[in-house]
Amino acid sequence: MPNVIDTDAIVIGAGPVGLFQVFQLGLLGVQAHVVDVLPQAGGQCIALYPDKPIYDVPGVPRCTGRELVAQLLEQAAPFLRLHDEGALSHNVHLGHLVARLTPQDGCYELTTDRGLALCAPLVFVAAGAGAFVPKTLNIEALQGAPTPPTGLYHHLPEAGVMPPWAGADLVVHGGGDEALSAVLSVLHAPDEHRPARLCLLHRRDQFQADAAMNEQVREAMAQGRLELIIGMPVDAGVADGALQWLDVLGPDGQTQRPPVQHLLIQLGMSPKLGPLTQWGMDLARKQVTVSAATFESSLAGVYAVGDINTYPGKKRLLLCGFHEATLAAHDAAAKLHPDAPQHLLYTTTSPLLHTRLGVSS
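^ that's the sequence the OP posted. Answer follows.
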């Protein structure tokens, strides 16, 4: 059995609302651990529109999804307990899909698909439309295994990490923003990180992507730095846990088998509620019903904030999620410390909040 980590609160989802939830809890002296299925923080902002502009964040006239996430991480940094090298710390668990949430003697025990076990009296579901999992290929040989075969990937490695395809053949599959952005990232990587041969596999010679990225990819093709393969994957071979080959059906009805030592699938993300539907919370149209005053669900101590919840008058806007996280944090802090005075403190004047934030009064 895994060791269970005890904490005040668990935040499910490291998107913008989840990160702000951590910040609000930290201000109130509530320690939280964060769990997200994606390999990096940011949720929809990173998975769906990292480089597209956002115009409706209060006080921020314009920023990209990537910039907003960076700002939220900086804001929440006092409560994310960073390692010396600045990497996300032990209380941020990325690449973990929540498997179960079960009541345990006044607390909730959460376990993930990778064996992480957390226990807390407070849980905040900030999972957006659900856990964002990458769309994959409907090919029998690539499905059903507990782990993807070696050579098959859905995410780029973290910046600075040597990719597994360095000096080998890499095929990127997709024709949207995600695929073209991945291709450009590979092309702009240091020489020692680049593949010996880079191909883009798409069903046609047209892309559904940002015009600037489209232009850069076309230029790379014209320069011979990128090869386009037109067709649809129809079959694959896996042996000894590794990808061996990929069959592609071309527009002429003929099947080809291009060299593919490594395959990076970039077909976008798909939200799935998954095990959340089995936790006993009241749901309405795949959303968690909550109190509009506290954002607590039908399970005592379990809150839902952001796009995952519903209540009379609900608006699925990012700024509304920030409001919900604030009220949920205050209600939860009162539950956690019922005997403590519930005075409203302000970051402009409170020495206590300045201490928690690590700033001088």
